[in-house]
């Protein structure tokens, strides 16, 4: 009996999975890329190229920071975005406080290339437990004056950090004037006015921002209370959810829940490709 062999059926090769997008990391006002280290470490472990952004005017002198505007800061983010797109094709963005506002501004300008946003401790109002009650009303009036814009707002305890050990390290760095490691020891009203100008620029644009967003906020945020994330979630035009954190203050990327912030961020970015 002759056995006839059956021709092998060709199998098309599976398309290679797209590599994870680059992750842009944007620190806060008067801050430093070191604030985003936990996110950078987790993102790199998950295979993401990591692009830390150092904002214009930051990590130097107080005069450098006072001379920079929100448009300078956004230009820093734009340059990092353009380089990441050229090298990796896709980006997702994580930002803390001012960095979260800048992440939204980037998504507004580049909806086709910014695939996801992780927005940490975003301040639409200064109404956290560590802020004097009349600040939301009086601060805009103060910043409209020359004295207010030149006034130095000195960083003070608890520095947005609940963990006493990390708070002590941060305080020591600020006392040494190590702005690269610990951020600025003080910022002027001019910088706060620039942050507010960026916020006012963004508010009417939020409904047009459809990029998926993870909004992460501490219940005990000492700078921006719960109304900020709720208002942001309601205003954004794209899918979003709020992750509430306990046992930490404003600087959630440094505080006791930093590892959870990192894990949830990486999981959220992975879900966008699912």
Note down, in words, how this protein is organized.
- The protein is α/β, with parallel strands linked by helices.
- It has one domain (22-271): Alpha/Beta hydrolase fold, catalytic domain (Rossmann fold, 3-Layer(aba) Sandwich), CATH 3.40.50.
- It contains 11 helices and 8 strands.
- It has helices at 37-45, 62-66, 70-88, 98-109, 135-143, 146-150, 164-176, 179-182, 189-202, 227-235, 258-271, and strands spanning 22-26, 50-53, 91-96, 114-120, 152-154, 186-188, 213-218, 240-245.
- Strand 3 (91-96), helix 4 (98-109) and strand 4 (114-120) form a beta-alpha-beta unit.
- The model is unreliable at 1-9 (pLDDT under 50).
Brief characterization of the structure:
By secondary structure, this protein is α/β, with parallel strands linked by helices.
Task: Work out the strand percent.
Answer: 5-15%
**Architecture, CATH level 2?**
3-Layer(aba) Sandwich
Mean pLDDT: 92
The CATH superfamily name is Alpha/Beta hydrolase fold, catalytic domain
Give the overall silhouette: globular
Number of strands: 8
Biggest β-sheet: count, sense, barrel?
Answer: 6 strands, parallel
Level-1 CATH class name: Alpha Beta
Count of helical stretches:
11
Query: How big is the Rg?
Result: 21 Å
Strand order of the largest sheet: 2-1-3-4-7-8
CATH topology call: Rossmann fold
Helix content: 40-55%
Sequence stretches where pLDDT stays below 50 over 5 or more residues: 1-9
Domain Serine aminopeptidase S33: 21-256
Protein name: Alpha/beta hydrolase
GO molecular function, one term: hydrolase activity
InterPro entries: AB_hydrolase_fold, Carboxylesterase_BioH, Esterase_lipase, Hydrolase_4
